[in-house]
Amino acid sequence: MDEMGERAADGPTTVGARLRAAREARGQSLDEIGKQTRVPVRHLVQIEDGRLEGLPAAPYSAGFVKAYARAVDLDPVLLSQDFRSELAQVSHDTPRVAYEPYEPADPVRLPPRLLAVVALVIAVVLAAGYGIWRSGMMTGEGANARAELAANGDEANQTAMAAPATATASSAPQPAAQPPAAPTGGPVQLVAVQPTWVKISERNGPTLFMGVLDKGQTYDVPATAVDPVIRTGRPEGLTVTVGGKPVAPLGKPAHTISNVSLKAAALVAGGAASAPAAGQPAATAPQAPGAPAMPSAFRDGTQGD
Fold first, then answer.
1. What's the start-to-end Cα distance of the chain, in Å?
2. Which of 17, 79, 147, 263 could bond to 69 as cystine, CB 3.0-4.6 Å?
3. CB neighbours of 124 closer than 8 A, spacing ≥ 6?
4. Rounded to two decimals, what is the model's pTM?
């Protein structure tokens, strides 16, 4: 019993001394305890040194001691009771620091800072992705594509308005030109006679090609395509061949076309339906000044929108 009493007498007696001994045994600094408990370091120093006169009122200071005790694995209730007893022994004449109500948060229930940063980054990425999706940049129907389609339409309309109002009739009837032999099938090829933006895709399916075909550039429709369709605002900028033979234009000039089939059978059928009857002269549309010449096979008829 005497040895136990001597050991107890040799050990820390005040609450602050016990907390300091436990902290040093764990190898922690006051800054680490302050971050873990969210208690100001200056108050932790006062508690360890036993300078209790400058601490806030007893309920708040006792809450500091509880949070400190939890951080160093000591009994928070016992140390809080002992600390209140020490505060009772301090003279009440010493002025107290006015302090707002404060309840130290349990560090276990505090969300880590990294989790908050990750959540913020995810929110920013989702907002940016939604904005890109609404702008149509991923599908090619964005502001640039719509502006290009509108510009193509305006340019073609201005060219059509500058053209003569009526065609000059020939003084003598000309014999009807024999239409070229209609193709029966084969690979489908697009040839750009002027820079033209096109989008070629499977009907209700993935995009096969999207971009601008420069003058003289060609595009071969894949033989593996099931039901390819085309969208463009300048159908007069393209010529189409099936098996190396030209077919009717895809649509009227300066009219946006969409979901027009590029299957060989559909193109051949469209050309046959728009061809003039045998023995009747084919009407020749007036050529707009500065517009590229259209082959005779393309002046026989057009494929509807």
1. 106
2. 79
3. none
4. 0.33
